[in-house]
Batch of 2 targets.
Target 1
Amino acid sequence: MRQTILRRLTRPVTVLTGLVLAVLGILVAAPLVSLVSATIPADGDFAGSSWPDVVTSPMAVNLFWTPLQNSLLVALGTAVLSTVLGAFLAWVVVLSDAPGRKIIAVLATIPFALPSFAIALAWSSVFRNGRVGGSPGILAGMGVEVPDWLAWGALPVTLALVAHYFSLSFIIIAAALAGLGGDLLAAAELTGASKLRVAASIAIPAVSPALLSSFLLAFAEGVSNFASPALLGLPVRFQTLSTRLYGSISTGNVERGYVLAILLVIVAAAVLYVGNRVTAGRSFAVITGKATRPRTVRLGAAAWPVFTLASGLVAATTILPLAVLALTTFSRRSHRFDDGFTLHYWVGESDPGVSHGMAGVFRNDRLMDATGTTIAYGLAVAAGAVVLGMLAAYAVRRSGSTAVIGSISFLSYVPFLIPGIALGAAFIALFGSASSPLPNLYGTFWILVLAGIAASVPYAFQTSKSALGQVSGELEEAAVVVGAGTGRRITRILLPLSARGVTGGAMLVFVTTVRDLSLVVLLVTPATPLLAVETFRYAEEGFTQHANAITLIIAAVSVTATLLARRLQGADQPWNR
Amino acid sequence: MTETTTPDVGRGASITVDRLVKSFGDQRAVNEVSMDLPAGALLVLLGPSGCGKTTTLRMIAGLEDPSGGRIRFGDKTMADGDSGAAVPAEKRGIGMVFQSYALWPHMTVRANVEWPLKVAGWGTAERRRRSAEVLGMLGIDHLAERYPGQLSGGQQQRVAIARTVAPRPQVLLFDEPLSNLDARLRVDTRAELVEVHRRSGATSVYVTHDQIEALAMATHIAVLKEGRLEQFGTPDELLENPQTAFVAEFLGSPAAVLIEGTVASGELMHEGIALAAAVPLPDGETLSAMYRPEAISLAEQDGTGVDITVLESTPSAGRFVVTVRRGAKRIAVVSETRYPVGARLRLVLPEEPAALFDAEGRRWDHLA
Ligand SMILES: Nc1ncnc2c1ncn2[C@@H]1O[C@H](COP(=O)(O)OP(=O)(O)O)[C@@H](O)[C@H]1O
Ligand SMILES: [Mg+2]
């Protein structure tokens, strides 16, 4: 009896499962537990803790309720507009015969590959007014009076988020529309129903799960995004939950920050969780048979207006902001072009007369240092997340226990519900406080890597699962039959066969990691500079050209790697076939 | 299923297809196809995969515009590929069953059937009555409140048919509607489809690559090959009087046997055996002689005949379909006895072949 238990414990799959659960426990469960326990007073008396400060005290309005209201407002605007614009573009690309559909389809996927602060910085470069000092934007430089509501606060924060997330909505809705199959719509057209009626009664309801899930994703992202409100709201004290959380921790009110982090997690997770539940049973999988490509709707005279609208939209969120960023980095003064152009901000030596003597980005030791750290950070996270994702996916595939499968799947999913900045706070609670049982890693490279892996686990796990899923169980069983052990099966059968999907997944983890600001903004210290955070600091301090130049570098890396990764994964988009 | 509810009989339209062409780029998917289909007929478009059946059907439906030629329903022109004029699909009075069924996944079975009626402006009570009637006719009235995702393939198929016939279209179109069903269900549903066609009174066009299905259902068959019409006619005409070697070998179970010979001094010879006499062609020309499988017999002993090897014997209606190998070619004949696999036998051919085909596969006639 004892022997069989021992044998079971040492079976490779059991060992692997235990290992995966332990790592997920440390990376996912432990930070959350520390975050919560750090806000629970030792004597159990909540009256003296930070909870009443944040929720009920006189300053709670400022600290929590107003930011909550702002967050929800921004999120609602982001969700509605992203879904409407994403659906419109998806319709143009998949179902209409508008000219230029191919190009629109490519451009519409790019904003999501850009760092979310790129659009915010571009907005600020154009619309910034004199309200908070510093050099104004291009419009102000041309003598245009830019009203505050256009320069700062809810509207620009929301629009900058929409410019980023409509792209995600587009991807989700276009895939759903393309998956419907042309026959479904042809069958409706044959009844004699008008185009509008077919759209309203058939196409939209049939993709309603995609519409809903795009709405909720955009909503949750809108609640949790940090970069956009930090750059366009914070300077005028337009606070959201995430900027409040950042403010509390960076000014030393750590416990309040933790409380805000917990509340932020609750709001975001509730939205995403409800979304998952609502859409789970309602995915209208395309039934049987081969789907035909949808017949395109003839737009006739409306073709050019539709084209103008769609291409204007994608140009305004891709080419235009990148062009603005580029232009400012080449002009001597960020807001006006009559002072001449210069390469100073890219390659110039330090000159006390310009930008307080800061050298161009390619001559700047601190930035070169940050570049090195960022790349090392991205690579370490990509490697770690993919290895963990693969092992977790493999454990789920081979384990017979529903409890094990359930726990691994759950722990791998949880970080998806947690806004980056709140996850950062939780890592401080676990690895950066004296009361934690784990070693203090705050200020080291490793806390960044561990947090990055935790944040990327949901994606890495899903990708690995689907990559492994494409290798049929029989291929592996054939190797079992000839006596190949677990390690050998993984390295000789599974890995080679799923390599493309996994490599593509690793590249996407790399880009999402290096361009992300919210997770790391609380975790970096001068010893571990990262490009995304440097950009943010420069922007805060008014070094517009430097911030924009670094953003362009990150954007170039992001977009290239995203396109490459999509190609590697064979995600030849379904609507392009 | 009551007899009072068959007012639709006789609503079909005749269909005329005149030198129909469809090009995709420089490939001609459908090439100069012409046929005349009487009202109420059931036409089967038959041919191997990729021969242009779906494309032809979709042009008849109006889902695809012809590159050339004309389609008429009765005396009304539906599409003119030369002028580009076309009646839109929804104005043609057609109903179509898609290969993928194309059921609307967010609507119940009843809603799937009723929505087209609603679009056509039927009243609520009328809609309800008609949907109950067609669902009853197809034996799926108990599924009315289910969603398509909760049905088996065969049930989905019936819903698709019910939805198509409910508005009483003049023309019914089917694109390989049985190809996603298992063998048993295919045979059952086939008979039901013929019944649906008969009761609706519509003119039907039915696409399949299965010649058995075609022979079982059709009043007319059009055999297509690489976009061209090989032959159009009734099943009997095609079986009795195939106009091309392709049709002869494609239709029938088992299909006709073709044996190639060379003309020598006015006789068609195959390895020293005379296939046909009095062939007025120069020496060296090749022709194929067609024989009906039931007219050929197998002989064990030496004698005149063509050497063959037995591959398999399948019992069929008290007799046996014996498949034999002749060089690289497989031939099926009907025999009274079973032969063991590997037996070396001879084919005994009748005096005269049932037909001759030239080297291009066209029918060749002595007198012509
Ligand atoms: N939309 C299309 N674009 C280009 N080629 C097509 C298209 N539809 C069909 N074809 C080609 O036309 C030929 C006939 O196709 P189809 O009518 O679908 O054949 P079948 O239904 O007989 O299998 C095929 O070679 C196919 O590849
Ligand atoms: Mg077809």
Target 2
Amino acid sequence: MPFIPHTEDDVKTMLKAIGVNSTDDLFDEIPSNLRINDLNALDAGLNEMAMGRDMKERAARDGGLACFLGAGAYEHHIPAAVWQIASRGEFLTAYTPYQAEASQGTLQLLYEYQTMMANLMGLEVSNASLYDGASALAEAVLMAVRANTAAKEPRILIAGNLHPHYRQTIEALVRPQGILLETLPYNDKTGCLETQLPKIENGDIVAVAIAQPNFFGGIEEVDAITDWAHQHEALVIAVVNPIAMALLKEPGVWGQRGADIVCGEGQPLGIPLASGGPYFGFLCTKMDYVRQMPGRLIGRTVDQDGKPGFSLTLQAREQHIRRAKATSNICTNQGLAVTAATIYMSLLGASGLSDVAKASHANSKALCAALTAIPGIRLRFNSPYFHEFVIECPCTADALIQALLKKNVLAGLDLSVLSPKLDHCLLICVTETKTSDDIHTYVNEVQHALQHITTTVED
Amino acid sequence: MLIFEISAKGRRNHLQAPRHAPAANDIPAHLLRHKAPLFPEVSELQVVRHYTQLSRKNFSIDTQFYPLGSCTMKYNPRGVHQLASLEGFLQHHPLTPASHSQGYLQSAYELQQILSHITGLSAVSLTPMAGAQGEFAGVAMIRAYHLSRGDTARTEFLVPDAAHGTNPATAVMCGFRIKEIPTDKHGDVDLDALRAAVGPHTAGIMLTNPSTLGVFERRIGEIAKIIHAAGGLLYYDGANLNAILGKCRPGDMGFDVMHINLHKTFATPHGGGGPGSGPVAANDRLKPFLPTPIVGYDGKQYRWLTTKDCPQSIGRLSAFMGNAGIILRANIYARLLGREGLCRVSEYATLNANYLMARLQQAGFTLAFPDRRASHEFIITFKKEAKTLGVSAKDIAKRLLDYGVHAPTTYFPLLVPECFLIEPTETESKEELDNFINILITILKEAQESPDLVKQAPHNLPVRRLDDLKAAKELDLTWQEK
Ligand SMILES: Cc1ncc(COP(=O)(O)O)c(C=O)c1O
């Protein structure tokens, strides 16, 4: 029987030990009017070979595109060792490290992860992961409300150029608690937040959440915004791309006092695109706010012989101890993805990660320069950017996307669905995985497609 | 040794990094990073060896019997992992147009159908990332339902005292006040207390059935009547679905909405803490409120349904569409087992639990509910041993580790003192169960003859008992360079 080791003799002996005649008798406490006898509307089982054929055929349908699409999930090279080690059964099939003595591997790895992530962000503490970048931001918002006791109302200012899916996620996750979400507008020319910041009174706002880079790839003037928020007793929540932080100023040193809570999507650190998950959310903060953090934390301590060891700590913040008073309901997190990210960061080191960031930046500059040299295409926003940028096309962005899909190129994201102001706009991402040949192919196909689209229109 | 302690300045892995990485001269200097983060500088071999050695300090399903109650630590099939890791799936960007996502979308759609059938509920959204997020979705849907009817008075959620900690924490995240419902001495919900608690403020109740006490709530029909009559709705915490696959369905019990832990019932690996996946299933009444995105099918093409298609949806719970890789794994697992195999899961999980329970009782262990049938798990209590021998459930759990067995869940549910919640799962053999019984008998003997051996356990692990007080008082959460 699939995955069930029992022989007929085993079953007989076991039923006898229990004192019943059949396994069916074991369900005798279920009221008979609720019993069903089968799941016959489902298909019969397949064996591994048949399933292999089926899934390979499905995977083939979804794969094989050259990816120039980012928008929150990024293709980077993943060294071979990352998943070979992360997929070891001892990491893959362990539960949450509640029994610390039997989980020192996972616990030490998570402590190393916390160290690397906190350092990458320039902050003092990192938790052991949340679900993903968007839900991590929702948790950061809730945490800010707990941490900022000076604010009169639970009011949060959210950057208008934040990933729209992040905005939707926080709406769904924090609104039931009566938290007010307002928008900090961005400038239509730069794509970055307006430099003229709104007039607010001290204590009006709990926190300001800004993205670096923003959804359009642009780099924000983070120092000025951070200082402005702090002057008004608001906390600063930074939503950042971890690869970008190897190149751009880390949130811990933004402005005079640094960002207070930093969160984001950990996927770029060695996690495959994989249709959107499993990825992981990260969350870092200052030591002052550690007791307001959601999620697991690993601490280094000693055992009864004085030998160093690791265990879950500050558990009184968590649902299994605190129940209704916990800082969050999160229990299962994204441990395996963090395992991969820790191995990824160790393999690349600080200089390797910085090279990934610089190469991605250089490649996106190269594609952008070539594309904007094509008549009719212009760069939509005139701010410095990291590895994503927006072009305005002479045709709809969707027409270009469809044309390039025929050549197995995933051209980017059509922004017209977000706002009528972004009609004809395409968000493009280039990382270190792309060669100059790939970039040429992209440009050629765009030229080709534009000729074709223009002639079709003229016809 | 920490990875930072084997680091040496200037050691690099050039093969893993890009070759061409020019400086970013166009970005203003005040926006750039000036201090490199403290990462280790280690060779590929050092990384591989370090983390391989760390992995060997873990207990896992692949290496040990792991009867962790409420967690369903069953075998995670290798074939499933391999097929979900096919290159085409891994390369696939979540925002790829539907025309080039049919393989994944079909797999997700099929799983929606399978879960709908298994649960007896009409519609499913796969987006919640774990059980707790599935709970959030369900409770938020109940909230949205009441509000959509202009019923703003329903501010309370009922949660039994035996519930998992995520249940009350979730209801609070959804803006509700909690009313705890006591459990009677047989492990069932106290119906008198329930009747007294319901009223015009009741939004709903969160229940697990079989409950976290390892017994089936026999009067579930009556509970559903009481709640529905008061205008509330019923949420089912599907953590224990392994116990009833193909035997009965939450939808038939009167539940309006539930989540399913794919990382329990559908054999996806726990990864040392996650990822999980907590799809939420709802009846017709709550279907319009399901979180998006959901996969739709028009007979030809699969596509994502968003809030445009589902205007009453509670919205989006994550940036993309949930833990897609776990959803793929659950699809493959369910289709490998098929209709017969899925029914067998609950039969053998229940057989194993009842066998262990019967044998342990014969061996002198105290059952929490001796007159009840075990579901897929059951509780023993060491209250007597704690009193007479001074040996606690924690001591016995730690001693089990010495014998190479992972401890059952301890001190949960909170109602039963000094307890073990034991869940063997269907994938363990009789030999493994017998071995576990013998080890427990040995430990009990040790507890009588040389209690210190048990109280000081573990002795054979990489570390002995850790100083949790020191960990919390002298917080050391990151390594510091000396
Ligand atoms: C009964 C019960 N409910 C809810 C949960 C929460 O599920 P998750 O850890 O996936 O969030 C668990 C698992 O830990 C559980 O055992």
